[in-house]
Every structure is written in structure tokens, then in C-alpha cells.
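Please review the protein record below. Let me know how this chain folds according to its C-alpha cells.
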Amino acid sequence: MLSEKNLIINRKKTLYSIVVCTLLLCTSSSVQAQSSNERDSLAYKLQSLKSTNRFNPKDTTHIKLVADLAFSYQYLDSDSLYSIANKALEYSREINYPHGIIRGLNALGSYHYNKGNRDEAIPMFKEALELAKYIGDIDSELSIINTMAQNYSFEGNYAEALNLNLKGIDLAREINDQSTLSVLNENIAGLYADQKDFKNALMFYDTVQKFNRNLGNEVVDAETQSNMASLYKDAKDYKNAMFNINRSIVTFEKHKIYDWLAYAYQVKGDIYLDQKKYKWALYWYDQSDMLFKHQIEDDRIQIQLMNGMAKVYFGLENDSLSLVYAKKGLAMSNKIKSLQGQIDCSETLYKVYKKKGDNTEALSYLESFKTLSDSLFMDKNKQSLSLLETKLGYEQEKKELIEANEEALAKQRNYIYFSVIILLILSIITFVIRRSENIQKKLNKELKDKSQAVTQREAQLHEINKTNTKLFSIIGHDLRGPIGGLQGILKMFTEGDITTKELVSFIPKLKTDVDNISFTLNNLLSWGLNQLNGVVTKPKRVSLSYLVNNNIKLLSEISQSKSIKIINQLPENPRIWADNNQIDIVIRNILSNAIKFTPENGLITIEAEEKGDMWQISIRDTGVGMTAEVQRTIFRDSSNITTYGTNNEKGTGLGLSLCKEMVHKNNGEIWVESIPRKGTTFYFTLPKAQNRYQKAS
């Protein structure tokens, strides 16, 4: 979501005119003159003030102009913003001018915030907020609350952001500030959109649009439409996304709102990119990039643009340009500490280097992407819960305060009524009885709701305990043993109990143990993410032959050690519509099991057969087979019994239950056929990829 709308409430129109003029510097000489005049207007007023006999640099009029000039550079020249804001703050502190101190701190906080230095920005915003509360400056208080909420949202602290927005809404309602109410509700919609909670996000956008209709400002309405277009894009509702973004672009072009126009162009590029219409995506990204080159400074939006262009060029198979834009986006992400930007750009760089065959670079970016993604995934899960708890807690606190206030008022009324005639006393009794009935009904409803919540929570805790039991069982049984063995051998070597030559003799066993640990951890991680509802299936056209050949190559050393022959009898280039990573895990687990339970000199055959609109894949081995009872239990979640292969290879018991989950997520089925001592065949189905190509439009 574009942040400029929400960061600036009262100064927006002034900034638009300055940004517009700056962006047009390179278009024509007449426009250059106009741009220069607009941008220099504040400086001209300052110069006129300084030329008067009564000029005093510490005069409040001068300080206000300096503060306005500082904010005018916010999206044009950050260095000028910093130096001028410092000067305004210095003058204000010297004469103890509260409004000037608030403006100076707000400007400096905005500078540090836009640079990614949020640890320096937050104390400045808090100091300005306390001062605004102290002097009763509600407009400044709302502006700072809004800016701080955006700051917390950007760094992923959604709970604190929601709390500030809710407080701001209550404050804006007190003064009936419709414009600020629109902004703060849109902030909350953005928080839910970031959490992929599109239902709640759209509910708040409905509220925003009601405020916008009352305001009657088509530019403000266009800003909301562009943010809603981004939400619809994330929800894969491309029809509504394109409808909203086209309407917003028309308005921004009409009013020459170039900073928002740059964002709208970028969102339209994102919509086409999502649909793999690369040429159209590149066209709109280029339109946005041309505007950013003319001194608009918003690294957060430009990071999205750079990564989008990198993805487009990757889709167009122009890997060199894809690398240029992805690296530029990653550098900007590192500069402003944007975790999401680092994740997106690292993923793109991994894909490009992998395609180029540069495995070292690809592995480096893959590790970075995985580490950052795991961190963000865990953090977002926590923040989703915090978001809900904060909202419920705030509403409960507000409700309690209202009830306490009503109770106090009721007592005051009682004291008054007791001093008047009996008729009024009877009226009070009637009122209290009716009120008690309503409260009782309300309490009964709350009790029922809380009982349901407790029941749901108990079920969740039961599932969590079951998951924890399984997790610790695997760690204790299948990971601690090999790791303990490895630790024991290394301890004996370091203490001189065994020689180097003897240590070398243990290397084949150590390698086998480490391979088992690695395989176990990979399955454990995938299973854990599934249990936390964290794995999102992203189907696409995938080459089944590519996945099978890669896994045969990956497990070739193990199969060769047992003299097992693996035969790939897939038809020519079968294509499936599935999540590449999930099906890769399925094939690897089944093939690994086949090797594990096949004696030396055995045979494993991999085949695929068309069944309507599905591919039926089979992996057949000449191994030990399994009984009917074992066949009925191997896919169960609750099964965590470790079985040993023909050469005493270990497993976690997770593999086949994980395979079942992932095949089902890709709209397939999985089953097994086996005869003891004769062999086993695992079957699973996956949707075919349709052989059709769409033209960009």
C-alpha cells in the first residue's frame, strides 16, 4: 500500500503541487519555469521576510515558514528536509515554541522513518505526541498518531499500529474530522490486507468509501481505489483490480498527481505480472520508473517496482536485466531495512542464478530467502494473533470504560432522584429493572460466546499438544541418536582415544548419519509448516521429468551403494499443474523409501499414465513389501513409528503423511499396493497442465 497518503493529512495539497512541478523538469522549458516558481515559492516568502527591518530568525512566523519548507522537500530532497527541519527545531527550542517543536520533531521523525532508521524516528514522534497532548493540539496529535501507526505497520508491529489507529479514530470522532477518519480506517484496511485477511480489509474499505463519498474529493477516492486494486490483485480478483486501478489512473492523470500516478502504474504492472502478461507488465513498470527517475523519493514503493521489473525480465528470459533490477531492489531493501523487500529480491536472484547454472550464488540467495522467509512467517503468525488480541482488548477496555462511566452517572442520578418526590423514585426503580434485564441478556450472550471460545481453544490446545508430542518424539528418537553418535566419535578423537586413521574409517557411517539427519530435518520442517497452516500451495506448469530426474540424481549415491537400478519410464515431457516444491518433496520421499526397503541388486521403476485430465504416477520397487495392516496405517498423521530399511537405514515416520497432505493440496490422490517379499508400488495423481498460451491484452 502507498504510504504517502496516510503519512500526510493537512499538508497534502501543497506537497502535490511541489512534486508535480519537480517531475516535469525534463518535459519542456515552459513547464520548467513553472516548476521552479512553484518549488521556490516558500523560499521566496522566507527571503521576503528576511529583507524586512523587523526580521527575527526566532520569530514564530519565520519558524512556521521554515517548517513548511522542510516538509516540502520530504519526497524531493531528503538532505534538505533534514537540515531545514533541524534548523526549525533549534529555533523553536530556543524560544520554547511548542507548535514549532512539534513540527520540527515530526519532520525529523519523517526523515529517519523514510531512511529506515525507525529506532531514531519513534522517540521523536513520541516526544512530539506528548507535547501535542499537553498543549491540546488535536490536529497535530492526529497527524503524529497516524504517522506512528504507519511506522509500526511498516516494521511489522501490526498490533501497535492497530492500537494507534483505533485511538486516532476515537479522537477524530470527537472533532468529527471526516478526512482523518477516512485515512485511519484505510490504515486498518491496509493492516488486514498485509495479513491476507481480505474479508476484514474489504469491510474497512467499505467504511472508507462512505467517508470519501461525504468528502466529495475524487483524488482522495482515487487513492483508495489504487490501494483496493492492490488488495484485489493479492486476492487474485483481477477483474476488480483492473477496474479500480484504471479509474484511479484516470483521476491522477487528470489532476497531475504524479507520486500517486507512479504507484498506480506500478500496481497495474503487478496485475499483469501476476497473470504472466510480461510485455504489458513491462510497459506499465516503465511508465512508473520514468516518474521515479524525476526525484520522487519513496524507496519502499521503488523496491516493489525494481523486483517487479526483475520478474518481468526473468519471464521474458532476459536474465542480465533481471539481475540488474533485482540487485538494485535488494540494495534499497538493505538500506531501509525492508524485510519483505529482502525476501522478494533474494527469491528473484535465486531463481535467476539457478537458471544461469551458477549454483554457488543461487544457494547463497536461497539460504538468505529461506532464513528471512522463516523469520517473517513466524513473525506474521504472531502478529496475526496480536492483531486480533489487540482489537479485542481495546474494544473490551473501551466497553469497560463506557460501562464504568454509565454506572457513575447512574449513581449521580440516584442521589438527585432521592431528593425529589416518590414518583421519580418509582421511575428510577423501573429504569434500573429494565436496565438490569438488558445487562443480564448481554451477560448471558457474552457467557455463551466465551464458552464457545473456550471450547475452540481447548481443541486448538489439544492439537498443539499432539503436534508437540510428535515433534519431541522425532527429535528424541531419530535425531538425538545420530547426533549423539557423531558427538561421541568426535569426543573420542579430540581426547586421543582414536587415531586419525580410525576416524577416517568412520567417515562413511558419519556421512550416512548426516544424510539421514538432513533428510529428517527437511521433512520435519515441511511437516511443521503444514501443521501451522503456513504452507501456501502455488500451482504452476511443472515438468514432471525434471523433478524425477533431479531426485534420481540426488539419490544416486545411495542407490549405487546398494547396487539398485532406477529406471525412468516416463513418457516424453509430461507436464503437471502443481506446486513445484511440494511435489519435489513427494517424489523424493517415495523414491527414498523405495531405495530404503529394496535389497541390494534390486530394481525401481518410475512410470506415468494419462487418466483423463490427470497424470497417474507410479513408483514400483522390488523390495520387502508390506502387510495389509501396515498399508492401512502408513499415511496416518498419528503414525510416527520409525522403520528400518534393508541396510538399517532410519526414517522419521513423517514422510508418507507429509506426502499425503501435499498431494491433497495439489488436488490429487495417493495410495499404495504391496505384496510382502515381492515389492511395493506407490501411486499418486496430479492435474495435467493445459497446453495453451494467452496473448497479452
